[in-house]
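Take one record.
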Amino acid sequence: MKKLLYIYIMIYSFGVLAQKRAIDSLPKNIEDYVLVKPGDTLTIQLNEFSIIPKQKFNSKEDIRYYLWFRRKVLKVYPYAKLASERLDTLNNRLEKIESKSKRRTYTKLIQKYIEGEFTDQIKKMTRTEGRILIKLIHRQTGETAFNNIKGLRSGWKAFWYNTTANVFKLSLKDEYHPESVNEDYLIEDILQRAFQDGVLKKQQAKLNFNFQKVITVRKAEINVEKYKKMFAKQKKKSEKKNKN
């Protein structure tokens, strides 16, 4: 009897631990993903509780790149969500302030507050994370990062902000188009699955697109060639640097 009780406790403990890992960490098991080779046919089976089909990968290596990119999206999304909330608060408050001078004063206060909240975090982001943030700000606010800055400051300031971003090969004018841009499609795929699994708290996008239609057209195929080339280029540079 004691032996059976011990076994039961061990099984229960592992079950609880597994549940925590599913929430707090990236998935380690890539066997659940579907690998499709050229010429293969595949019938997409929908999960009982989901209308999002399982992704289709060409190789296990592609799955690892997808998980790398997923980590970036999960890290950046909360900042875009928070930016949208702050701007909504600002706009709602400004509608109730009739005095132009008071509106300017309040806008400056919010501007400094937003910059104080985001500056340090953004400085720590990689180029990929910065690009994802710019795209998600468009998704969550309905305006590009450039236009949001232009609204809070002046067009001249927005121009210089954009020029600075270009030094890092980024543009604050970048838009979010999951229906036509592969990287945006990957971001949306990750977000929708994270919302569904409770990993991220959903905030309604302020852009009009039908992701269900998009993923159906794309047949849930995942293309990570861009990131494979990026890593290969970085590896080549590193090897060349080490030789010198």
User: Anything to note?
Assistant: The chain has nine helices and two strands. Confidence is low (pLDDT under 50) at residues 1-26. The first strand starts at residue 34 and ends at 35. The beta strands are 34-35, 56-57.
